[in-house]
Amino acid sequence: MWQQIIALIVILFFLTRLFSQKNKKNISQAEFALWLVFWALAAVAIIFLKQIDAFLYELGFSGGGINFLLYLAVMILFFLIFRLRLKYQQLNQKLTEVVRKITLETANKEDRQK
Questions:
Q1: Cα–Cα distance measured from residue 53 to residue 9, given in angstroms and rounded to the nearest whole number
Q2: Average pLDDT over the chain, rounded to an integer
Q3: Which of 64, 69, 66 is nearest to 38 (CA)?
Q4: Whose CA is closest to 35, among 20, 52, 46, 49?
Q5: What are the residues whose beta carbons fall under 8 Å from the beta carbon of 46, sequence distance 6 or more?
Q6: Using an 8 Å Cβ cutoff, are 8 and 44 in contact?
Q7: Residue range 99-111, pLDDT digits in tens
Q8: Which among 88, 82, 50, 87 is positioned nearest to 69, based on CA atoms?
Q9: Where are the domains positioned within the chain?
Q10: CA atoms of 71 and 62, how far apart (whole Å)
Q11: What is the per-residue pLDDT across 50-69, written as a single tens digit (0 to 9) for each?
């Protein structure tokens, strides 16, 4: 029971930070909605952990609901890391194109001036 209370307090902390970032306009509306849903689902999963345990037992899983939630969280984290890596690669390619274009334009201007 104490673990659930502590987890809910941590989620409440993250929610306050989320609203703070939204008020400062550091995150977009879509990103705010995504994280709000994520933390709300996490809170619901923690509140109904015993029901999740019972549901997983009915499906034939031997592990508890907390194990399932941890596995799910790890999978989500790996997916998010993968997406971040793809975004980083796209940004790196765009930056390379911009730098190449600026370099060529600068070189062309210097050639014309000679």
A1: 22
A2: 89
A3: 69
A4: 20
A5: 4, 7, 8, 11
A6: no
A7: 999 999 988 888 7
A8: 50
A9: 1-47, 65-114
A10: 14
A11: 888 888 888 887 777 777 77
How far is the CA of 58 from the CAs of 46, 48, 49, 51, in angstroms? 19, 15, 14, 11
In angstroms, the CA 17 to CA 32 distance is 11
Contact between 4 and 47 under an 8 Å Cβ cutoff? The reply is yes
- Give yes or no for a contact between 68 and 56, defined as CB atoms under 8 angstroms apart: yes
Can you give the pLDDT at residue 85?
95
User: Is the dihedral angle over the CA atoms 6, 9, 15, 20 positive or is it negative?
Assistant: negative
3-state secondary structure the chain: CHHHHHHHHHHHHHHHHHHHHHHCCCCCHHHHHHHHHHHHHHHHHHHCHHHHHHHHHHHCCCCCHHHHHHHHHHHHHHHHHHHHHHHHHHHHHHHHHHHHHHHHHHHHHHHHHC
Other beta carbons less than 10 A from residue 74's beta carbon: 10
For the record, the structure tokens of 19 come out as 């609203």
